[in-house]
């Protein structure tokens, strides 16, 4: 199970906005770049603030906005004849760079283990690479969970919200990060396994 399975319902909510953007001549690639720039700016803000609570409070809203932009760029590409090779590259690179920009600065937040956060970011990149590699062996691009992009956004958005609200840090935080790390490992294995099963079938 993964939050990604809710994407069709989320897209339906955003479809009027998507049509409005297409009518105004906004392209899918422009939306993709906007999502990346928003992520870079937010990550830089968290880093430069030293992980202060006011900066962490921005993260949940930015993650939701990024998810919306990611859904919109896909709909623009598919439903308004904007698909391109450049768009496919921008989409995959944008996701990985955005994840890195948003989550790696959390390593400096007091109470968050820098080593665990770094490993989480590395495994997040590997999980997305595994999903893309499925295409190279003849399978579909894999989005299997349990810790896909949407799941990571939910987990870290909630975590940032709790920390911004002043929840005391402690051993529970290391357990949460360790759990996310294990779920990412499972996601890598799951995506590889599902891709191989698809090709075999």
Describe the secondary-structure layout.
Blueprint: H1 7-23, H2 28-49, H3 53-56, H4 58-79, H5 85-103, H6 114-136, H7 149-164, H8 171-200
Helix pairs in contact: 1-4, 2-4, 2-5, 4-7, 5-6, 6-8
Transmembrane segments: 21-48, 115-139, 151-169, 175-192
GO molecular function: phosphotransferase activity, for other substituted phosphate groups
Protein name: CDP-diacylglycerol--glycerol-3-phosphate 3-phosphatidyltransferase, putative
Integer average pLDDT? 94
Q: What order do the helices and strands follow?
A: HHHHHHHH
> What count of structural domains?
1
Whole-number radius of gyration?
17 Å
Apparent shape: globular
Number of strands: 0
Q: Under CATH, the topology is which?
A: Four Helix Bundle (Hemerythrin (Met), subunit A)
Tally of alpha and pi helices: 8
The CATH architecture designation is Up-down Bundle
Secondary-structure-based class equals mainly alpha
The low-confidence runs, each spanning 5 or more residues with pLDDT under 50, are none
Helix content: over 70%
State the distance separating the first and last CA atoms.
Answer: 21 Å
